[in-house]
């Protein structure tokens, strides 16, 4: 691609970050979705520009991945997912909060990134920008779902029934918590499915939680009643299969105790729907062994330095290789988002300058 074309596209992406703060919301009462103008399924010049700009560094889904440090992440010899899934994948942020305050993505004023705070509606705004950009890079669909509070339940219980509502329209629905950032946006889910051994039988895939304990007592907080590490629901992948809908129904109805005695405690007790899934659902919905596929903790949990930042509390050194979940530090997503985007832009600018060296480089010693 010509240098002029590349920089025109780069300008289009820059406009994305300048304009996000002046988008307004409107409600789709039937679907329950809170949509953002410019984010419809029809596509726009901006989305096309994002997809085209990052095509140069989008990682091939069937090749081993080497990061900037030189670390190589290998795939199985015969990768299963070999073609882009595109709009058959939905990336969704599900939240009861509406980020329409000052300096938030649905607010009336343009976001001042220097003053942007990654808390509350600012955290939700950060998540939307991060996950929306990632979706456009890989051609996935994106939605923000503004959910209603379920009486008597902690707000994260919205997850099971909303996943079940959205899934019929897609092959895969992937939900992120607002405090999850994409570490390597150039790596798509097709590659990750190959790495994680997600199969055509996999109903759900989610990461092992970090190992966490109470520093004062040593009480382990991250295991179920059988002593098995729990799953974390900050990143959840569900596939459109009959078993998936049965599983999501059982999960959502767990607190009624019609099927699982004792589950009602997790309506409000930590860790809510996450603990209910790990305590009951995972033991009943994995008949073939690959219906529930764990994601390595190091791939999708925590961040580098977490064990030093929270000594005696976080005891597993998971580093968020592909996704970082900032469970204890909500201020970090802003900087993580900045770093991941600038890493991609820096790579592209480096390539561009190298290609155009003869045109821009002046060597004083060679001037005649």
Automatic annotation (TrEMBL):
Stated name of the protein: Glycosyltransferase family 34 protein
UniProt keywords, alphabetically: Glycosyltransferase, Transferase
GO cellular component: Golgi membrane
Signal peptide as annotated in the record: none
GO terms, molecular function: glycosyltransferase activity
GO biological process entries: protein N-linked glycosylation
InterPro entries: Glyco_trans_34
């Amino acid at each position: 691609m010509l240098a002029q074309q590349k920089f025109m596209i780069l300008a289009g992406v820059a406009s994305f970050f300048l304009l996000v703060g002046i988008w307004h919301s409107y409600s789709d009462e039937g679907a329950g979705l809170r949509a953002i103008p410019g984010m419809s399924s029809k596509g726009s010049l901006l989305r096309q520009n994002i997809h085209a700009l990052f095509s140069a560094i989008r990682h091939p889904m069937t090749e081993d991945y080497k990061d900037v440090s030189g670390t190589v992440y290998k795939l199985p010899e015969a990768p299963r997912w070999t073609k882009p899934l595109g709009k058959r994948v939905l990336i969704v942020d599900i939240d009861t909060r509406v980020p329409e305050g000052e300096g938030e993505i649905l607010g009336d004023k343009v976001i001042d990134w220097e003053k942007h705070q990654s808390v509350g509606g600012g955290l939700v705004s950060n998540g939307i920008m991060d996950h929306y950009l990632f979706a456009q890079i890989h051609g996935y669909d994106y939605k923000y779902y503004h959910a209603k509070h379920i009486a008597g339940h902690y707000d994260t219980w919205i997850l099971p029934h909303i996943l079940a509502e959205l899934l019929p329209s897609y092959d895969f629905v992937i939900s992120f918590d607002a405090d999850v950032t994409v570490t390597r946006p150039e790596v798509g889910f097709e590659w990750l499915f190959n790495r994680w051994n997600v199969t055509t039988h996999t109903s759900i895939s989610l990461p092992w939680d970090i190992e966490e304990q109470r520093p004062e007592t040593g009480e382990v907080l991250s295991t179920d009643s059988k002593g098995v590490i729990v799953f974390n629901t900050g990143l959840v992948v569900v596939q459109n299969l009959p078993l998936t809908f049965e599983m999501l129904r059982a999960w959502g109805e767990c607190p009624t105790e019609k099927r699982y005695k004792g589950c009602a405690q997790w309506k409000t007790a930590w860790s809510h729907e996450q603990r209910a899934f790990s305590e009951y659902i995972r033991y009943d919905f994995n008949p073939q062994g690959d219906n529930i596929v764990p994601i390595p903790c190091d791939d999708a949990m925590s961040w580098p330095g977490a064990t030093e930042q929270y000594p005696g509390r976080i005891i597993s050194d998971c580093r968020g290789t592909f996704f970082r979940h900032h469970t204890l530090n909500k201020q970090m997503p802003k900087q993580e988002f900045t770093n991941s985007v600038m890493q991609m832009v820096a790579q592209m600018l480096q390539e561009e300058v190298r290609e155009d060296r003869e045109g821009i480089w002046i060597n004083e010693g060679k001037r005649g």
